[in-house]
Amino acid sequence: MSRFAPAALSPLHPETLEQLSRISTPTLTTQLFKLGFRNAFLHGVRPLCPDRRMVGEAVTVRFAPAREDYSSYEVLADPRYPQRHAIEHIEPGQVLVMDCRGVASAANAGDILVSRLHVRGAAGLVLDGGIRDYTSVQAFGFPVYALGPAAPAHVVRHVAVDENVLIGCAEVLIVPGDIMVGDGEGVVCIPRAVADTVAARGVEQEELEAFILEKVRRGAPLPGTYPPGESTLAEFQAWKERQNR
Amino acid sequence: MSRFAPAALSPLHPETLEQLSRISTPTLTTQLFKLGFRNAFLHGVRPLCPDRRMVGEAVTVRFAPAREDYSSYEVLADPRYPQRHAIEHIEPGQVLVMDCRGVASAANAGDILVSRLHVRGAAGLVLDGGIRDYTSVQAFGFPVYALGPAAPAHVVRHVAVDENVLIGCAEVLIVPGDIMVGDGEGVVCIPRAVADTVAARGVEQEELEAFILEKVRRGAPLPGTYPPGESTLAEFQAWKERQNR
Amino acid sequence: MSRFAPAALSPLHPETLEQLSRISTPTLTTQLFKLGFRNAFLHGVRPLCPDRRMVGEAVTVRFAPAREDYSSYEVLADPRYPQRHAIEHIEPGQVLVMDCRGVASAANAGDILVSRLHVRGAAGLVLDGGIRDYTSVQAFGFPVYALGPAAPAHVVRHVAVDENVLIGCAEVLIVPGDIMVGDGEGVVCIPRAVADTVAARGVEQEELEAFILEKVRRGAPLPGTYPPGESTLAEFQAWKERQNR
Amino acid sequence: MSRFAPAALSPLHPETLEQLSRISTPTLTTQLFKLGFRNAFLHGVRPLCPDRRMVGEAVTVRFAPAREDYSSYEVLADPRYPQRHAIEHIEPGQVLVMDCRGVASAANAGDILVSRLHVRGAAGLVLDGGIRDYTSVQAFGFPVYALGPAAPAHVVRHVAVDENVLIGCAEVLIVPGDIMVGDGEGVVCIPRAVADTVAARGVEQEELEAFILEKVRRGAPLPGTYPPGESTLAEFQAWKERQNR
Amino acid sequence: MSRFAPAALSPLHPETLEQLSRISTPTLTTQLFKLGFRNAFLHGVRPLCPDRRMVGEAVTVRFAPAREDYSSYEVLADPRYPQRHAIEHIEPGQVLVMDCRGVASAANAGDILVSRLHVRGAAGLVLDGGIRDYTSVQAFGFPVYALGPAAPAHVVRHVAVDENVLIGCAEVLIVPGDIMVGDGEGVVCIPRAVADTVAARGVEQEELEAFILEKVRRGAPLPGTYPPGESTLAEFQAWKERQNR
Amino acid sequence: MSRFAPAALSPLHPETLEQLSRISTPTLTTQLFKLGFRNAFLHGVRPLCPDRRMVGEAVTVRFAPAREDYSSYEVLADPRYPQRHAIEHIEPGQVLVMDCRGVASAANAGDILVSRLHVRGAAGLVLDGGIRDYTSVQAFGFPVYALGPAAPAHVVRHVAVDENVLIGCAEVLIVPGDIMVGDGEGVVCIPRAVADTVAARGVEQEELEAFILEKVRRGAPLPGTYPPGESTLAEFQAWKERQNR
Questions:
Q1: What interhelical angle do C195-217 and A111-119 show, nearest 10?
Q2: Which neighbouring-strand residues pair with D58?
């Protein structure tokens, strides 16, 4: 455990994960921006299954550059090898996030490892590296977010060196226990301490924006509508009350 | 209006826009090359709807790097904010082109703004930046060309600073009034002064190349056929006359 | 012929090409790694038809940067121009590999040239450059691997200067006569001298990994299974014998 | 004038410019960070004369991508051409900042233009582009900050399109009237509204850090010293009072 | 301590460090290549004092991407903050190596921290990030290797998260206890297990190449001389024996 | 010899080389631009000895990506290896230009090879790769232009595959026999066919610009002076006649 990772995870509101699974990543980044977090979206990390949603707590693996005395197929047989150990011990609902140093030309997982994550009940896999057996992995329907397909195994470029420490993934800090949310757009990392707030406010923003989009499609001008002025907000409240009756 | 933008737009031949909508972007770049324009294709800007065509006159918005005192959600409520003002005042048949400085990791438009463009009758949207609500925007069927999906709003990286000035987009100069043409391959900017010529010659090239492709598929060798020699050109003229009879 | 290209090609085992056409590129990179080849996968070169397989011997074309006195549409009429000459003289089963210097913004082939390759019975086309008439080329079903679509013809950025010499393509050395294999993941270049070995061992690895994947999907833990321990290997042998009975 | 540029410049404290000329750019970025500005340092822009200091108000020029009908040597003879016009009308003490789109391979100024700036009393030149006649310009001793030397004139890659609008330079927003400060490390852009505050606090920080550096060189441990604890701050106050006596 | 870092360091031959301090980094990379290590040179990391040599055992610090709740000036006051803790506890003769993720635009150390390393007797500082107070640090004459000058403090882009774990620095794996050697060309990381061998063979290679260079300067042709044939090697042995007499 | 390289070199005007050695690379790129050549300056290739001039005819070597069966220290002993063969057979006054594929992290020459070029009377060495033994090579005073220092030998990344063919170097086409000119700014490649013209016009431009610079330093305004109007040109002619008297 890295010196600065939290010793124990604070509890989440019981509805938070379910709410987050319904909020789009654009809305999540907006709510995070308003709380002062400007860098939460993992750029370049794309879904293998764009119509699947993903939500879960982060566990992490860290890769460092390969070296001939550290990186080999032999080392993969060691059950303590962080990449294999983390997969073998993941718990249901967790998302495995791997720091692959932004290298798109090597694959840090393929169909066998993803299958193991799937069987163990993981909620997803996120990495700023490549995936091999890409089409086969897509067919699983398990949420995977990566830079793209790549045939060579990770030992060509990397060695796994740590597990469940603070990492960077696609230039975003990931703290074990943070909430990873993915949709067709990509992945957002929500700092655990603000997850409840982001979930509650995000649900509201989604409702409001659905209302605004509908108005705009019917011809409303932008000024006063988006962002909403007082009159639009009043209309929205009235509409919402009618909905909830 | 930037010092060097044209004060009034020269008229186009009445058939030019319709012709351009039938000519592929590869043919357009070839005709432009022959007129001395080597840099007209917006590289990396990809269609959200590859099977839609786009043609229209350019209006422009320019973004500069974000700064904490200039970039915020509050500024978006100002109806003079160039991004919002340009969308709200676009005219039917125009294409909005935004200089997003090639930044793929922030979104310069989403479903609400694209919907407003659509409702106002715009012909398309082109930007060297990201689009949020990507799948939702794709479903509109409105021609949008961008670097790809990105969740964070543009205020994280940009501030809109100007409207209808000369801009660069994807390393191509865009002058307001130029003709933007898009297909499944991407977008070409045609300098207004040569649009009539490019349209007329492009239609011819397309016919000739369809004829050549057919010959090659039936087994003709490249020499004499592509590029066409005298004999192939004569065959083509004869075939064309038969067609037009 | 470049000074260091082989004068004559050594013969391949009669089953090698057929075997390679059934082995995935991840498996091929693993077998090559085990033989000491760490850099065989052409990164960033993607299939236009991801569900087609490709296998064949490499012939090569080399492009250099354009210069106004060397790069023009006129030069394309010269039947000795290396790009055209190589296409016109390709033999059935060969794969044309073009060194396009990693430039994605220009197209080194379009529908007419690809059609000619197709008609002549070539096995595929691989290039670290762009393809124009992208959708049209996709519709042929002919195996093409490229960086993506681009409208401008290659003369904007390149001039073809050599044929059938050693080249780099997507940062991988390609020697004329090497075996190019492509699948939905991308392309691997197999040095001719090891092609028989790679094919034989690759077939075996594919069988073993299919067996392992099946075990993992049924709940087997990673340790002892992947990589396989003695017990898993024994199970595999028994299963294989049952299959072959 | 761009829509969002200030109409009139607010006055500065009479000592601000002189103070800023004594504060290092690291100290300035720290003071700006503490006021909420995280992106003020022009990365990659290096001094031609590392031992000269520069301070002055920004005037700006904007370049867009070259196009054959806009970029030529002929256009340079037009006294309204923004690059030439801005140089010809610069006032004593101003710094010319040019948005060269981060292109290092073309030169946006050379010895003649820099000489004219010098003669007119400008305080410096800053650009995220190249400089030609590099050695000759270095010999002037006039403060110039650029990406490096480049021989080709800017018309190969750019056309100047605007003057004194908001620009980006090396990924930093520059508003006309902002204060540009340069030292051997590079250039910082200080938003005009906070220049007085940054100057006052920067002078204090420099004194404190000189005191801390001296303590560390004499063997003080980091904890309590850097950042300074209460005891170090008290020592500093005492020392400062002794100095001022 | 990272899971895969060695628990205790194996002893070095008593002459190894002194020998390494006399061998150039080109020679060291050649000896490492011959032992199978192809990736030992930290590319892009340049000396602040090109005429100083550096040799010592690596201790490491790891930085991850900044986040608003983790990266601030306040956290620097915590004596456990890895960047500060590692500096405060470095031992004489050690080299501090920092994984700054290749970010050149922020500074991971400045004059005060480098001064503390100097006072504590460290052998050097190596980082794939920026240095602030560049000129001041150069004046110390203490061996520092970095990407270049940068004014902003590291908190703008990074947070220090670990100490003395395996890291990547400039795309090279660094294991605590490895031997870092620097000269005017840059820095090589020598895996501890091969340091004695590399030192012994490197000394020999240097003598041989000095002999070869001398021959070439006097007009010897390359064939037979470089690489040396039997006759050149015999000459060298004879010359060496004369020297040692 | 590559298919498109010239069989025999056309003669140059006897004064051309001497004239070119006095003309700056900015002036040369301007003259080439006026003749239609927009891409002649080798960007990023910097002089090891900025105060030396270089002029001579190009001979070329081409490198391709390394592969374990082609790239080794053993192959260097083969006198036909293109890198060694080209150096061993260079003629007095020629400039060796190497296509190193823009890779800065490996060295394609060091002190021994440069020394051999020097002894053989070569006019210079130009490469878009690294140089090892950098300081030692600088001390020779022999004109070398490269991307920078790098310790690892080229075999880590490259294999030399061809000699005296058309190559790209730093994104510029180099035809054997072209004239390479270098100064403190970098290197320009002048197509042989226009070398006489460029030399003659370049000498004139240099005189005119020296005259203009002098006027500007004495306070002349830009309009009418730079670019020169009729009156300035008349003054220049008069001055020139006085000089020549």
A1: 0
A2: D95
Q: Could you tell me the CA-to-CA distances from C71 to A75, D72, E217, F30 in Å, in that order?
A: 52, 22, 42, 21
> Please, where are the H alpha helices in chain D?
16-20, 25-34, 82-88, 111-119, 134-140, 195-217, 230-244
A173 contacts A91 by C-beta, under 8 angstroms: no
Beginning with the edge strand found earlier in the chain, give each strand of the sheet holding B130-131 in spatial order: B107-109, B130-131, B148-149
Strands F179-183 and F186-190: antiparallel
All residues at 6 or more sequence positions from D14 whose CB lies less than 8 Å from its CB, including other chains: none
pLDDT digits (tens, 9 = 90+) for B81-109: 999 999 999 999 999 999 999 999 999 99
Sign of the torsion angle spanned by Cα atoms C218, C221, C223, C226: positive
pLDDT of A6 strictly over 70: no
pLDDT at A4: 54
Chains F+A touching (3+ CB pairs under 8 Å)? no
Q: Which of B37, B67, B192 to mutate to test the interface with D (most CBs of D within 10 A)?
A: B67
Of A73, A111, A156, which is closest to C227 when you measure between CB atoms?
A73
| Dist CA A38 CA A172 (whole Å) | 10
Compute the distance between CA of residue A142 and CA of residue A126 in angstroms, rounded to an integer.
Answer: 11
How does residue A93 score in pLDDT terms, banded at 50, 70 and 90? very high
Distance of CA E34 to the CA centre of its chain: 19
B-chain residues within 8 Å CB-CB of C73?
Answer: 30, 33-34, 227
**Closest Cα partner for F133 from E26, E215, E50?**
E26
Give the CB-side neighbour count of residue F124, counting CA atoms within 13 A. 29
Q: What are the angstrom distances between the C-alpha of A93 and each of A124, A140, D159?
A: 8, 17, 55
CA distances from E209 to E205, E216, F173 (A): 6, 10, 35
Q: Is the pLDDT of residue A59 over 80?
A: yes
pLDDT for position E7: 66
Whether the pTM exceeds 0.90: the reply is yes
Closest Cβ opposite residue B3 in set D36, D162, D175 = D162
Q: Are F236 and F242 in contact (CB under 8 A)?
A: no
